[in-house]
Amino acid sequence: MAAVAEQKFPTDPEYDQYNFPTTAPEPQHGHPGHTTPEQDTQVQQLRAMLEQMGYTERLDTLTLLRFLRARKFDVEASKKMFVNCEKWRKELGTDDLPVTFEYLEKPDVFKYYPQYYHKTDKIIFKKTLGGDYFAFTLDLQ
Question: Number of structural domains, the chain?
Answer without folding.
Answer: 2
